[in-house]
Amino acid sequence: MEDVVLESRARVLADLEARRMADPWAVSALEDAVASRRWWVSQWPEGAQYVAGLVAQDVQDALLDQTGRWPLCEGCDDGPQHPLHISPELGGPDPVWVCEESGAVVARLGDLSKLRDRGGPV
Asked: In terms of pTM, does the model score above 0.85?
């Protein structure tokens, strides 16, 4: 189970870094989310496939309260800024970032760094 938790942490940290949001507050929020989900998966081992997406959602919630929405969509040219969200809603299996406006899959969780500036895959 620990491998699942550590992989989840690495994937979310990669996306925080990709959007230049890996400041001390965000990393602390990530560590809190990891600790919480570590306990959660120890109670429900069958839920391991959901941990990465749930950690990302937990960090999103924490950042919303502190610094605002994360990650923002960089692929849409029209309309106000809007965030990406994790799909499927339960966080897994195979969580992806989806544009809140268009519904388009933008990247797998952990792969935001592989996007061009305007949100297109490399």
From this structure: yes
